[in-house]
Amino acid sequence: MAHLQMITATDHLESGLLTPDLTALVSGKQSIRTVA
Predict the structure, then answer these.
(1) What does the pLDDT profile of the chain (36 residues) look like in tens digits?
(2) How far apart are the two ends of the chain, measured CA to CA in Å?
(3) What burial letters (b/e) apply to 13-36, b meaning 16+ CB within 10 Å?
(4) Could you tell me which residues come within 8 angstroms of residue 18 by beta carbon, excluding any fewer than 6 positions away?
(5) Can you give the residue ranges of every domain in the chain?
(6) Residue 5 in contact with residue 32, Cβ under 8 Å?
(7) At what angle do helices 20-27 and 2-15 cross, to 10 degrees?
């Protein structure tokens, strides 16, 4: 499901929603916790 999480992150980035959790997701630190 890692690919799904990345797609979700890209979706949010395109929407202009840059949150701390999203930043961590992009960094690959808390991708699972962010989507959950």
Answers:
(1) 565 566 666 665 565 555 666 666 666 655 555 555
(2) 11
(3) eeeeeeeeeeeebbeeeebeebee
(4) 12
(5) 2-35
(6) yes
(7) 130
Q: Choose among 16, 14, 15, 12: nearest CA to 25.
A: 12
Evaluate whether 26 touches 11 at the Cβ level (below 8 Å).
no
DSSP state letter for 30: S
Are 16 and 7 within 8 A, CB to CB?
A: no
> What pLDDT, on a 0 to 100 scale, did the predictor assign at position 10?
67
**Do residues 28 and 19 lie in contact, with contact meaning Cβ atoms separated by under 8 Å?**
no
